[in-house]
Amino acid sequence: MEKGHPSKERTFVAIKPDGIQRTLIGEIIKRYERMGLKMVAIKIMVATEDHIEKHYTLDPAWRTVTGEKTIASYKKKGLTPPSEDPLEITAKILANLKTYMTSGPILAMVWQGAHAVEVVRKVTGGTEPLTSDVGSIRGDFVLDSYSMSDTDNRAVRNLIHASGSVDEAEMEINHWFKPEELIEYRLVQEQIIYDVNIDGILE
Ligand code: GDP
Ligand code: MG
To answer: Which residues contact 184 (CB under 8 A, 6 or more apart)?
Structure first.
């Protein structure tokens, strides 16, 4: 398949420390693999706090956007946000994320295939497990919520990180992997998924 073909889209996925402790590695990988996506990089590692902070702030707007989004979600539920300052909110979220994400090993991966970013987000489910769709990984395997994690002053435990856009994926892949750690190879099933002419099957 030529460079730039839709089948070359890549996304960054990480099984967070709680996903590994829940022994869900196989279950999670299976969900992406059976859709037809191809794993092109994988490694198990313990991240540093600095690596996690950089990961979440690769997009310079993340602090503001996440803070504003969180304030809005408190107000929508009729609750008073802990602060009206988005950056103050995000500072707390980030501190909790650093504790959570460095608490044990993480499984970092890159998955490739048509609409990789969107289909991985769909199968993974919405960020807050309480409202993630049933049938999604988070909907099926976690019961955490923002209200409970806020009460206990910790990050929400949602098993997985998955890039939110193609641009974010590119930045995150570069942040977690060296170019030589990404393997370019062909999967036999790609002939059925992508080839224009399905031929060479019948004998
Ligand atoms: P993701 O791309 O689905 O992981 O979601 P975001 O990039 O918007 O948020 C990243 C992380 O910030 C999430 O995994 C949560 O830990 C935290 N977060 C985002 N929004 C909220 C919120 O409204 N409340 C709280 N407590 N944490 C949040
Ligand atoms: Mg995100």
So the answer is: 40
Q: What pLDDT does 137 receive?
A: 98
Active site residues: 161
Ligand nearest to the CA of 161: 1
Of the listed ligands, the closest to the CA of 128 is 1
> Looking at ligand 1, which residue's alpha carbon is closest to its atom 19?
66
Atom of ligand 1 nearest to the CA of 97: 16
* Structural domains of the chain, with CATH: 6-46+104-190 (3.30.70.141)
Question: What parts of the chain have a pLDDT lower than 70?
Answer: none
Task: Check residue 3 and give its pLDDT.
Answer: 82
Main-chain dihedrals φ then ψ at residue 103, nearest 5 degrees: -75, -10
| Residues 173, 12 contacting (CB under 8 angstroms) | yes
pLDDT at 200: 84
pTM over 0.90: yes
- pLDDT for the residue numbered 17: 98
Spell out which residues line ligand 1, taking CB within 6 angstroms.
Answer: 66, 69-70, 73, 93, 97, 127, 146, 149-150, 155-156, 158, 161, 164
Looking at residue 1, what is its pLDDT? 75
Sheet (strand 160-162) strand order: 38-45, 106-112, 10-15, 160-162
What sign does the CA torsion over 17, 21, 23, 24 have? negative
Task: Determine the pLDDT at residue 199.
Answer: 85
